[in-house]
Request: fold
Amino acid sequence: MVQGLLRIGFWSVAYLAVATLPLAIALLGQVPSGRGFLLELGSGLGLVGFAMLVVQFVSTSRFRWVAPYFGTDAQIQFHRATGIMVLAFVVAHPLVLWISNPQYLEYLDPRANLPRALFLTAATVALVLLVVLPLWRISLGLSYEWWRITHGGLALVVILVGVAHGLQVGHYISGITNQILWVTGGGVAVLLLLKTRLWKPWQVRKRPWRVADVRSIAQDVSQVVLDPDGHEGLAFRAGQYAWLTIGNTPFALQQHPFSFVSSDRAGSRLEFGIKETGDFTATIKDLRPGERAYLEGPYGRFTLDPAAAGAVFVVGGIGATPAISILRSCRDRGDQRPMRLIYANNHLEDIAFRDVLEQLASDMNLSVVHVLESPPPDWQGATGRVTPELLARHLADCSKQDWQYFVCGPAPMMDAVERALLEQGVPLWRLVSERFDLV
Ligand SMILES: Cc1cc2nc3c(=O)[nH]c(=O)nc-3n(C[C@H](O)[C@H](O)[C@H](O)COP(=O)(O)OP(=O)(O)OC[C@H]3O[C@@H](n4cnc5c(N)ncnc54)[C@H](O)[C@@H]3O)c2cc1C
Reply:
């Protein structure tokens, strides 16, 4: 617990330090005097907003060393929450300046300076779109791939205009050192974007994979087996995931994350369980052995703590995949810690890995509770949804302090289960969640 709190404290302080770094740097240069509180506040909001914007690029740049600290889920939640804060700071920046001195309105006046007005307006609109598009993407009918491209493009516009605006205005960024630091901040952000979108695919192009087998394992769920093609494979920790691209180039628009379902001790052959939810996943069942694929990873922190006394998995639908990988790996290691899996599905035919789980339950100290929302008439198991009562009933003998709790499934189920587990005494640092719908 202390370790968890220390970690949260450390990263909160680190974030605050980075966000306020431009203020410290600004004070190192020439500080104009007598500008008044509101003017200074307005400038400060802009400087801090810019630094927070740079951190936005760091939080989505797929650094492997970040994963053990935060996990993908926390990273995405953080990116979303801080994105809203960036918008608030950046919008407050001109508002406070205009209140302090209406003359600043001329920054948006095309008669005063057309390119400046256009770029600042474009960057503001881009920033608003960056924050609201993820919320409305589905209702607007924007595909994930086009949203991802748009998100990168808009982010690039905002950061480049931010750098140019800071240099052009010059307050606090007039000295050469401050100018270099300012441009470096923007440069780091652009490089991180290029790293994720170009450098990473460039690296994985030398390590192709071949489809070895594809078969249906449940309603709309396919098992895909990949073999490394001319390399030794990919080492991962059970519960992690990789970004999958199908086809002859890793630079394809379609790059999707999927959890490994194989044991992390199973050798170089990798297995995935993929549910048909949209245009990319609909093509999976038609893959043919021999087709080329690329994997970028591993990523994620949905992994078992070696010090945990036991583990509970509350999963729904295709959210079972990382749990299967963890359980298979524990079986292969001879891990005899007690484990419990509550697995929710709509119908009997939706249960993927039913046979796999039966085998695992006989091989290790695992008990499985299947919960069906629409069961067949002869169903003997639990029915309905995963309610707090169901959790309390099936997890009564599981230590809340010493066991680790994993949650993965549809978002509404995850929200309800996380809330219930916390209310039933599971500490936050014992809870590990993975959300499959990033946006
Ligand atoms: C860490 C992680 C692990 C995952 N593991 C699995 C798994 O083991 N098995 C499995 O079937 N699915 C898994 N998913 C979900 C899978 O990535 C999406 O279902 C898939 O990308 C949908 O693509 P689509 O084009 O077929 O559907 P779309 O119609 O494009 O999207 C359907 C929904 O899937 C989500 N989605 C779409 N594309 C992506 C993407 N590139 N990245 C993240 N989310 C996306 C969106 O929220 C969207 O609403 C995982 C997701 C994450 C984030």
